[in-house]
Here is the input.
Amino acid sequence: MRRFLLPLALMALVAAGAFAQGYSQQLLKGLGLNDSQITQILSIQDATQATLAKDRAQLRVATAQVAAMLVDQNVAMADVEKAVRAANEWEVQIRLAQIQRELSIRKLIGDSKWRELVRAVRTRFTGTAREQRIRSLLRQLNSLNGLAY
Here is the structure.
């Protein structure tokens, strides 16, 4: 079972990583954006990355608190629920920050350029390079788990 879940989780992470990594200046120039737009997009990315880093750190803390609670056999379910909801709130904050970033960029460059940008980012993570990266990551993860791939 674990063998099947690991590749699925990895593919989901790679797909999410396409947008999480941000947009390079070269990619933005290739779309025909002007220097002002590129500067503003990179500024939006930088500001969002700082917020996301803080929120992800808080999420890790909240998740660790849940895990620590589950070590105790006599933990109250109400306390666990409260801790899980707190962790979930950090996940919501992370997603909202990502959505705000995308909406800000879309408003800045317009719908047509936005669609081009999304296509360009998706294209970057498709095909042979993506498959090789997934295989490489699977080998690394499997070696950590003692599995052969």
